[in-house]
UniProtKB/TrEMBL annotation, chain A:
<feature type="transmembrane region" description="Helical">
    <location>
        <begin position="184"/>
        <end position="207"/>
    </location>
</feature>
<keyword id="KW-1133">Transmembrane helix</keyword>
<feature type="transmembrane region" description="Helical">
    <location>
        <begin position="76"/>
        <end position="96"/>
    </location>
</feature>
<feature type="domain" description="ABC transmembrane type-1">
    <location>
        <begin position="72"/>
        <end position="262"/>
    </location>
</feature>
<feature type="transmembrane region" description="Helical">
    <location>
        <begin position="12"/>
        <end position="33"/>
    </location>
</feature>
<feature type="transmembrane region" description="Helical">
    <location>
        <begin position="143"/>
        <end position="163"/>
    </location>
</feature>
<keyword id="KW-0813">Transport</keyword>
<dbReference type="Pfam" id="PF00528">
    <property type="entry name" value="BPD_transp_1"/>
</dbReference>
<feature type="transmembrane region" description="Helical">
    <location>
        <begin position="108"/>
        <end position="131"/>
    </location>
</feature>
Automatic annotation (TrEMBL), chain B:
<keyword id="KW-0067">ATP-binding</keyword>
<dbReference type="Pfam" id="PF08402">
    <property type="entry name" value="TOBE_2"/>
</dbReference>
<dbReference type="InterPro" id="IPR017871">
    <property type="entry name" value="ABC_transporter-like_CS"/>
</dbReference>
<keyword id="KW-0813">Transport</keyword>
<dbReference type="GO" id="GO:0016887">
    <property type="term" value="F:ATP hydrolysis activity"/>
</dbReference>
<dbReference type="InterPro" id="IPR027417">
    <property type="entry name" value="P-loop_NTPase"/>
</dbReference>
<dbReference type="Pfam" id="PF00005">
    <property type="entry name" value="ABC_tran"/>
</dbReference>
<dbReference type="InterPro" id="IPR013611">
    <property type="entry name" value="Transp-assoc_OB_typ2"/>
</dbReference>
<dbReference type="GO" id="GO:1990060">
    <property type="term" value="C:maltose transport complex"/>
</dbReference>
Length: 276, 332
């Protein structure tokens, strides 16, 4: 295939990919630049691109005014917590569906995924009421639970596709070789499933990290993660573009760094294992 | 010890009967080959013996003990899969050692058994590689190594050579035969290649649509096929079948004669026809001859016969080499 594509077409596709990437990336780049501008330069017309006086003032102010590290801590606790809890529930579920499917397995999977098609606001009222009644509002536990639940269908679906890829022959070989069910799981299945589980884990941490709707709605002060940190710089105090940008940069930096270091696993995860 | 007995084994998959009723006796130390066309139930029968599928009814006995409901591990058999089914995350050493690790054998015993198997199978230099770093033939040997370390009661092979190229297939065929001579352990070997069946087997089970068409030594099947199916399946090129008046003249519904049992003469002979194609293999020549009122016949002649396309030749079956079958296809 690759060889059949002519050089000119390859160039055209590369250019196209770059253009698309730039368009997608532009808002982030702009926020990055704005975060180093003064509030005045930030709203200057015509906008200044690179040649302005760079300043760290916004970062200083944001760090002074709000407790960034508490938000960061909350984000880490809820993203990692909900991902781990999700995996604990999803691994056995996906496992069962992949290795001993019944006639209804496909339906169950579809039904689980279909819950993701409902707009979140649709269940806003019942969820907030449940949270209030159970005293979960503005708690880590509440946030972990809700993040787990909204991402569970995706976790199960991803794990299911990974487990499905494990050849049955190999499991049968282990059975022939005298492995008990426990040994089969420990020595054969798990090592083969770990790359898939790792990809799912990474992707889900990102999804949970970026979830803003529920995290803003269900927290007020104590359990607020980073999306709420950004939001704090938009409405209540009027629009301060430069500070808002600085806050956004600080909110996405950790996840961006994590994503950078785990690119390979992540791409595999996002393409559901299609890239080998 | 490793005798295997099947008693009225029946297997259905959700109402579809794949194996209606098979009874079979495999003696200890025999090399048995299941052969038959694709989809006839060879793999299913092997997997029933292995315990990877449960019999719907009937019994399977190993060394006289009923194992019909026993888990695969309890049957103490080893299996080599068509796909090799090696553990991709383990080294060659890890793969071969796996069955012994599962039975918690002592460290020294495992090392010794692995080194032994590696030496037998020429894998000593590859012990620390991962399966993906091996060629197809080497992977196959690792799969065999994994099967032999446990000293099973019997080996089960499911088309182990079908992913290899022709030359390697011949070499591995010999290796497996030698292995059988050395170990003298019962082997049950599935293939759809009748040459593999003929060359390796002590006894062949010819399967067709889940039924045993014939069970016997390669020569028995070749010399006394029980019916037209076996007659046509065993032997290459295929046996010629003739129906109608010519068959009736011999008092049969169908007569059959193998290409190697037709004598080719420039003229005369029982049947006379025109050469359509002559295939020169060097050692032999296969002549495809169109005979009036009978149809196309294949004859195997020496490598240097002069007959060419369009020439008329005479064909006669050798004495006593004509097979006669009734309307049901059974040998008369
Ligand atoms: N798990 C299963 N569920 C339903 N039908 C099955 C199952 N396994 C096998 N069959 C059917 O049983 C029949 C025999 O299959 P089997 O795999 O034993 O054939 P085979 O002789 O090994 O063929 P091949 O030479 O192609 O490997 C086929 O018709 C197949 O469709
Ligand atoms: Mg098969």
């Amino acid at each position: 295939m690759a060889r059949a594509v002519s050089t000119r077409r390859k160039l055209a596709f590369t250019a196209l990919a770059w253009i698309v990437a730039l368009v997608v990336f532009f808002p982030i780049l702009w926020a990055f630049l704005t975060s180093f501008k003064t509030e005045g330069t930030a709203i200057a017309a015509p906008p200044k691109f690179l040649f302005f006086e760079w300043t760290l003032e916004n970062y200083r102010t944001v760090l002074e005014r709000s407790n960034y590290f508490r938000f960061l801590g909350n984000s880490i606790i809820t993203a990692v917590g909900s991902t781990l809890l999700g995996l604990v529930v999803a691994i056995p579920a996906a496992w069962a569906m992949a290795f001993s499917p019944t006639r209804r397995t496909k339906d169950v999977l579809m039904w689980m995924l279909s819950t993701k098609m409902l707009p979140a606001v649709g269940v806003l009222v019942p969820i907030t009421m449940l949270f209030r009644m159970m005293g979960l509002t503005d708690t880590h536990l509440g946030l972990v639970l809700v993040l787990t639940l909204i991402n569970l269908p995706i976790i199960v679906w991803m794990l299911f596709t990974y487990f499905k890829e494990i050849p049955v022959d190999i499991l049968e070989a282990a059975r022939m070789d005298g492995a008990s069910l426990r040994q089969e799981v420990i020595y054969v299945l798990t090592p083969m499933a770990i790359p898939g589980i790792a990809s799912t884990l990474l992707l889900n941490i990102i999804l949970a990290w970026n979830e803003s709707f529920w995290t803003i709605v269900l927290t007020t002060t104590q359990a607020t993660p980073l999306p709420a940190f950004i939001a704090a710089y938009s409405s209540p105090e009027g629009l301060f573009w430069a500070k808002l940008s600085a806050a956004s940069m600080m909110a996405i930096a950790p996840i961006l760094i994590m994503g950078w270091f785990s690119q390979k696993q992540l791409v595999r995860g996002l393409t559901f294992g299609a890239v080998k | 010890m490793g005798s295997i007995t099947l008693e009225h084994v029946n297997k259905s998959f959700g109402g579809v009967e794949v194996i209606p009723d098979i009874s079979l006796e495999i003696a200890d130390g025999e090399f048995i080959v299941f052969v038959g066309p694709s989809g006839c139930g060879k793999s299913t029968l092997l997997r029933l013996i292995a315990g990877l599928e449960d019999v719907t009814s009937g019994r399977i006995l190993i060394d006289g003990e009923d194992v019909s409901r026993a888990a695969p591990a309890q049957r103490k058999l080893s299996m080599v899969f068509q796909s090799y089914a090696l553990y991709p995350h383990m080294s060659v050493r890890g793969n071969i050692a796996f069955p012994l690790k599962m039975e918690k054998a002592p460290r020294e015993k495992i090392d010794q058994a692995v080194n032994n198997a590696a030496a037998i199978l020429n894998l000593t230099d590859y012990l620390d590689r991962k399966p993906r770093q091996l060629s197809g033939g080497q992977r196959q040997r690792v799969a065999i190594g994994r099967a032999i370390v446990r000293q099973p009661k019997a080996f089960l092979f499911d088309e182990p050579l079908s992913n290899l190229d022709a030359a390697l297939r011949v070499a591995m065929r010999l290796e497996i035969s030698e292995l059988h001579n050395k170990l003298k352990t019962t082997m049950v070997y599935v293939t759809h290649d009748q040459v593999e069946a003929m060359t390796m087997a002590d006894k062949i089970v010819v399967l067709n649509a889940g039924r045993v068409e014939q069970f016997g030594s390669p020569l028995e099947l070749y010399q006394r096929p029980a019916n037209t199916f076996v007659a046509g399946f065993i032997g290459s090129p295929r046996m010629n079948f003739i129906d109608g008046a010519e068959a009736a003249r011999h008092g049969a519904h169908t007569i059959g004669v193998r290409p190697e049992h037709l004598v080719v003469t420039p003229e005369g002979g029982d049947w006379s026809g025109v050469v359509k194609v002559s295939e020169h293999l060097g050692s032999d020549t296969f002549l495809h001859v169109d005979v009036d009122g009978i149809g196309a016949l294949t004859a195997r002649a020496p490598g240097d016969v002069p007959f060419r396309h369009g020439e008329t030749v005479g064909l006669s079956p050798m004495n006593g080499r004509l097979y006669r079958f009734d309307a049901q296809g059974l040998a008369l």
